[in-house]
Amino acid sequence: MILILRKKEWEILKILWKDRNQYTSSQEMAMLIGASDKTIRKYTNFLKSSLKGHGAEIQAKQGNGYQLVITQPVIFAEFRERETKKHADYKIATNVDDNFDRKKYIINKLFLESVILKRNEIEQDLHISSTVVFKLIADIRSLLAEYDISVVNTKKGLEIRGSELKQRQFLIDYFFSRKFNSSFMINLQNTVFDSSINLGEITVIVLDEIRNADLYVSDFVIENSIVHIALMVQRLRNGNTLMRHLLDDLDKQGKNYQVAKNIYDRLVRSFPDIRIPEVEAEYISIHLISRNNKKLSIKNTEVDKEIKTAINNFSELVNGRIQNDSILYKGLVDHFNQLLIRLQNQIEISNPVLRDVEKYYSEELAITKKSFQSIADILDYPINDNEWSYVTLHMIAAMERYSNSQKIRVLIMCATGVGSAQVMKNRLEREFGNALSISKVISYYELDKKVLNEVDLVISSINVDGLYLPVPVINVSVIINDSDIRNIKKFVNIKTDNKRKLSNSDHKYENIQNEYVFYNCFSEDRFIVTHKENINKEKMLSHMIALLEDNPQTNFNEMFLREIKIRETYGPIIFNNILAIPHPTKPLTKDEKIVVAIIKKGLYWDSENPNIRFIFLLSPSITNNKNMRQVSNSLAKIIENKSLEDELLNINNYNDFKNIMLKILSL
Predict the structure, then answer these.
(1) Which CATH number is associated with domain 7-94?
(2) Spatial CB neighbours of 234, under 8 Å, sequence gap ≥ 6
(3) Which CATH class is domain 512-666?
(4) Average pLDDT, the chain
(5) In CATH, what class is 406-495?
């Protein structure tokens, strides 16, 4: 799939297209995309070159920014339509939008597909810069160092060095341990597989034979093969045997079949209590065949398209937002390949999990049938419930992946990292098991950058206010009291809400960004509505400053007030005689925060401004203020729009304020 535009070029083009009737600054685009101003300028220049010959150009105007100019509407419309489809398909096919997926993609190529990678190929494949590639390789090297494995630069490209034993251990830990420890797989093992079926043991067998034969397949092919073998063993235990060959023209001298036969031989030794017919080796070999194999792939592009449509339909019906799950898409393409082979050869197999799917996932089974019925119609073969339940397993696993992706990754930190931390861990899992994933429990002295890169939140029994950390920190007592629970719940509600919104489609992109900005600047704890008269300005400001939580010094209130007065001498902080935006000359708090006061009866500021109705007290961060900049730029719209002014003055609660502010941010 050839993408003319890199990912950032595409994001820039979408912004410029939306605001094509006006200029957009690089700072505004940087804030929306989440990149530096310099990066935006660089990719905008790339975009200028990419648009040549496609019916549009970008005009730059100093002090205003960039504007998209359509010179040939028909040609540009065709170009934009092609790129829209390509980027949508690319996202589904690769799903490598974040660093975890990028690292996984590179590791998959190096280890499982044994590809010698060149850095420029990684840049092109993932549409990222050389700087990002360099950082990814550094992270992978750090990850592999624990296994005495290295990534070396050769004349050909990047290659792996290390013992085969260590490589296999790494692959099991990195690709499969987490997957098979998911609650869905654990539930499958507890309810369907008996205790003698060990997914870890099957993983070792499959991985050993694949590596021994230098057979190059992806991680999802290996995972599907492992689950298939476990289901096969259970099926045979239940007395359901395949009695006929699947393919008359199967190449039994080929590498796929030889690997499958070796796996089969080891399974026979590992499960001596059951008779495993040799025909099962053929079935295993089908699972090992790449979906790119033309002989066994679904040739009908209509079916491939219907799989994507069915996933979207299922996702909408269950509100699962699994439409961009690349593992699901690839797994279903492979599954329908194998299903088509079985249907063409009139092979019926029972599914040992059918009864459990009907019992525990009856709704998902019904939705699967409804969503995928069009594929059954295209294949022109009847599909029974044994087969539908296999498809349902793919959908259930995808739903769990989505659910787990929404969990907040937490690092627990205390003085020793031993007994007290375990008490904290147990309490948090009991209270927030569905929302938090405890990544690690450490002592204060084990804290390092690598650990922090892998979490969303630190929950600490040690006060670390004097230490800047790149992730939010919630200080708690060791026993985690009710007040601690409330603070954590507040963070969880905001974070999960943002994660849910960020997984929506691109047409909600701007609203998501605005909500993110709002949540990072405002809080109900820092919101005041008062009907009082004759309010003293100094007392009101002191009260508002007191609502800023992390006061670094005892005289913080006086210092903040002094800084506001100094700032007032530099230039106006009152606008249109109704809006006050006091703020210090320098940052005094770790995080960017805004305290809001809506004063129904007005406040006397000075003789020129006797009736201030709105105070937005800004407290910029000592590190980053990109959200506050967007808010402060938007506040001018209040005095420019009388109806907005009236709406703000008439509100009585925080939710109404939030709705109006989001509207202001979107203007």
Answers:
(1) 1.10.10.10
(2) 192, 193, 194, 197, 352, 353
(3) alpha beta
(4) 79
(5) alpha beta
